[in-house]
Amino acid sequence: MNKRRPYVRSMDGWWRKNPFFVEYMIHEGTALFVAAYAGILLNGLLHLSRGEAAWNAWLDGLKNPWYVAFHMLALVAIGYHTYTWFKIMPRTMPPVIVGGKRLADGAITGGGLAVAAAASLALLAAVWGMAR
Amino acid sequence: MAENQRTIEIEVLRYHPEKDKAPYQQVFQVPFTDDMSVLQGVQYIKDYLDGSLSFRWSCRMAICGSCGMMINGKPSLSCETFLRDYYPARVRVEALAHFPIERDLVINMEGFIEKLESIQPYIIPREARTLAQGEYLQTPEQLNVYEQFSSCINCMLCYAACPQFGLNPAFIGPGAMALLHRYNVDSRDGGKAERMELVASEEGVFHCTAVGYCSEVCPKHVDPANAVNQNKTNAAADYFLRFLAPKGGAK
Ligand code: SF4
Ligand code: FES
Fold it and tell me: Which percentage of chain B shows pLDDT scores above 70?
């Protein structure tokens, strides 16, 4: 008789078993904040299309301390998402050869973060300029 | 044994299919010296404490790929992981995660072997050459494109690091995909079209959600996650280019 009886371990709670997986789940979870924020902006656009009164009401709504707190939370979450996103970027693309040598992972991650920071600052400056 | 010998606790996940319903932990007191690997610790248990303990090993120099285990929850080659780095705490060893346990630290690797066969891990010559025509030549740049992926030693640590493989064992997985990529990007090879069908299939690269732990644990710096993700792009390109240049052949 065949004595083999391979035992299959359960995958229940797999992401709690390793700090790397916990980080991965937080990364995935923060994507929800990105989606929620897109929802907020779309809602603003909707109000804008309904005329000035609706737009101003939406703006007033944003001043609610709960809303402000949510914005702070979303900023942190989206910042973390950006950081971890660029951290895995070198894993996802073909090698970049510069001067006959392969570009290091750190350079790709750093470059991505620098571009993200520059783009955010440029957008902030543009909106700031428009609002004045 | 030499002087300055200390004793460390090694906790092993045991499983003997003929008598155990499920795996259980067993703790051994193992005397060790600074130069002893976890593999040597486990060998000590087998030689002096419990001869029924089963595990795989061969080269004890990180090249054969047979001694992979979960060491404190991390997929590792036990021959290049040292007991001194855990002392005075206890070391936990367990069979590689996500694979069925055959016996103690021995996993069932049949699924992996089948995947390895399915990727046709050999050069399918692009053009037939006779002996008289001489060898296939390759530039250092052409070698660079695949060399990293050819370092894979089939240790399966990347599979033990891949939750998507754990959740769906049919997923072709990081190691086999790294080797598939190794042959696909070799300038001498002409088998890419055949292998791409596997890449884009149900079991192919799109199971991957870019967790990236596989590349983290790979002892040979193969970066299997990179092979998987480059092939997501390749498969997507194939899919769209098909509409531009219909040549048939896709199933
Ligand atoms: S890719 Fe790395 S971790 Fe995976 S089987 Fe090959 S050598 Fe092992
Ligand atoms: S015994 Fe060969 S890799 Fe560890």
Answer: 96
Q: With an 8 Å Cβ cutoff, is A107 touching chain B? A: no
Does residue B46 sit in helix, strand or coil?
Answer: helix
The pLDDT tens digits for A44-66 are 999 999 999 999 999 998 899 99
B38 confidence band (pLDDT: 50, 70, 90)? very high
Q: What tokens does A7 get? A: 């035992």
φ/ψ (deg, to 5) at B10: -115, 120
* The predicted structure's pLDDT at residue B238: 84
**How are beta strands B68-71 and B74-77 bridged, if at all?**
antiparallel
Q: Does B23 touch chain A (CB under 8 A)?
A: yes
Average per-residue pLDDT for chain B: 93
* Domain final residue, candidates B61, B89, B107: B107
Q: What is the CATH number of the domain that holds A74?
A: 1.20.1300.10
Q: Say which CATH number the domain at B41 has.
A: 3.10.20.30
A15/B226 Cβ within 8 A: no
Residue B1 falls within a domain, yes or no?
no
Number of domains in chain B: 2
- Residue-range definition of the domain harbouring residue A32: 15-131
The interface pTM score, or ipTM, of the predicted complex is 0.86
- What the block records as the tokens of B65 is 């790929």
Task: Tell me which of B42, B57, B152, B154 to substitute to probe ligand 2's pocket, judged by most ligand atoms within 8 Å of the beta carbon.
Answer: B57
Which helix (H) or strand (E) segment holds residue B243: the answer is helix B224-244
Residues B49, B118 within the same domain: no
